[in-house]
Design goal:
The protein contains twelve helices and nine strands. By secondary structure, it is an alpha+beta fold. The chain has three domains: 111 residues, Acyl-CoA dehydrogenase/oxidase, N-terminal domain (Butyryl-Coa Dehydrogenase, subunit A, domain 1, Orthogonal Bundle); 108 residues, Butyryl-CoA Dehydrogenase, subunit A, domain 2 (Beta Barrel), CATH 2.40.110; 149 residues, Butyryl-CoA Dehydrogenase, subunit A, domain 3 (Up-down Bundle). A four-stranded antiparallel beta sheet has the order 2-3-7-6, with no helix packed on it. A three-stranded mixed beta sheet has the order 1-4-5. A two-stranded antiparallel ribbon has the order 8-9. It binds flavin-adenine dinucleotide (FAD). Its cofactor is FAD. This is Acryloyl-CoA reductase (NADH).
């Protein structure tokens, strides 16, 4: 159920204040240390950011998709690594359980994910199975009242700090969707090995690593929904929501970048006048604003469709494709407007330029979004 307007506005105001007063001033510290400071994690938990859209039955705020994206527009105003920590818990880190968990699995894990006591992680990608996720090889074999998992997952967000992994594993050899099942694997399970944090281009503080299963034994009750064969379809549904969330984040970041670029253009003088007065600079500002506005409208429209219970696979892919490419162009122009300063790490645009490159790659590359959009469109018109 949607929040009343006043409550939603209060929440958005509180998040906006938190972002401006606490997160933006901590961006440099995060970039240098690669760790979200513990006092900020606590404040994020107190604000309810780990459980924004998890049902109030499980301790979350129960936001609709439209409400969630409006909050994420605010969270996008700062380094995306802050969002990555809490956003994974309401997105890919919890959605498999929300969509397909048993009552017991929901009751067991969702309250801890909603409060941030437990960090969630979603493990689909493998060294030889990225865009072609259906070719994944991590296996799960039934052994009495347990399953035994073997194989390696790669680039798994939050793995070094996660308490719970939604792991897609093969329970039948054939290449088809219902050969893949999802397991809820707790940190500390015997045979679960977490790799060293990956060294990345950007998003310092948003940790990823390998997750290795070496005869990792989990109870049969770890099988999501108590049923084999629903893992691949559940993953695709999880990503439908995740893609809208990431699109909203790109809208927020583009807004921040445009603000930084305009502020710089007003301050920086060349040829005796602020560079904001040059029409070629204005063209970059105008193109960025127009694309940002289009992305914002798309994301809100798709979020409302999802709230009405409509299938948004195509719309989520359109939003992900357009918003992630859009924020890349906006970041590039923001660097250009800053001139040489935009290449220096003391300016936030340099960091954001590297941070946003990821969005065109994870949760389905731009090419995969194009394939999804084309497939759904051809299906609809055939
Ligand atoms: C920082 C980071 C965090 C991540 N977090 C997670 C996570 O939490 N959980 C998780 O499971 N995964 C995660 N990933 C993995 C991510 O989802 C994959 O990297 C992504 O899906 C692409 O897979 P790949 O890297 O194997 O590239 P590949 O699939 O090898 O793609 C290489 C290139 O080929 C293109 N390509 C592939 N297939 C086609 C095709 N059919 N047609 C046209 N072009 C194609 C791609 O678009 C890309 O340009 C993360 C990745 C990164 C970098």
């Amino acid at each position: 159920m949607a929040l009343d307007t006043e409550t939603l506005n209060l929440l958005i105001d509180a998040v906006r204040r938190f972002v401006h007063e606490r997160l933006i001033p901590a961006e440099d510290e995060l970039a240098a240390s690669g760790e979200v400071p513990p006092d900020i994690v606590k404040e994020m938990r107190d604000l309810g950011l780990f459980g924004l859209s998890i049902s109030p039955d499980y301790g979350g705020l129960g936001l609709t998709m439209e409400e969630e994206v409006r909050v994420v527009f605010e969270l996008g105003q700062t380094s995306p690594a802050f969002r990555s920590l809490a956003g994974t818990n309401i997105g890919i880190g919890s959605q498999a359980i929300v969509l397909a968990g048993t009552d017991e699995q929901r009751a067991n894990y969702l309250p801890k994910l909603a409060s941030g006591e437990l960090i969630g992680s979603f493990a689909l990608t493998e060294p030889d199975a990225g865009s072609d996720a259906m070719s994944l090889r991590v296996s799960a074999e039934r052994d009495g009242d347990c399953y035994v998992l073997n194989g390696t997952k790669r680039y798994i967000t939050n793995a070094p700090i996660a308490g719970l992994f939604s792991v897609m594993a093969r329970t039948a050899p054939e290449r088809r969707a219902n050969s893949i099942s999802c397991f809820l694997v707790e940190a500390g399970a015997p045979g679960l090995i977490i790799g060293k944090p990956d060294k990345k281009m950007g998003q310092a503080g948003a940790l990823t690593s390998d997750v290795v299963f070496d005869n990792c034994r989990v109870p049969a009750s770890a099988l999501l929904g108590g049923e084999e064969g629903n893992g691949f379809r559940t993953s695709m549904r999880v990503l439908d929501k995740g893609r809208l969330h990431i699109s909203a984040l790109c809208v927020g970041i583009a807004d921040r970048l445009l603000r930084d670029a305009v502020q710089y253009a007003n301050e920086r003088k060349q040829f005796g006048q602020p560079i904001a007065e040059f029409q070629l600079i204005q063209a970059m500002i105008a193109d960025s604003q127009a694309e940002l506005y289009a992305a914002r409208c798309m994301v809100l429209d798709a979020a409302r469709m999802r709230d009405r219970g409509e299938n948004t696979t195509m719309q989520a892919a359109c939003c992900k494709l357009f918003s992630t490419e859009m924020v890349g162009r906006v970041a590039d122009r923001a660097v250009q407007i800053h001139g040489g300063a935009g290449y220096m790490s003391e300016y936030a645009v340099e960091r954001f330029y590297r941070d946003v490159r990821l969005f065109r790659i994870f949760e389905g590359t731009s090419q995969i979004q194009q394939l999804v959009i084309a497939r759904e469109t051809i299906k609809a018109h055939s």
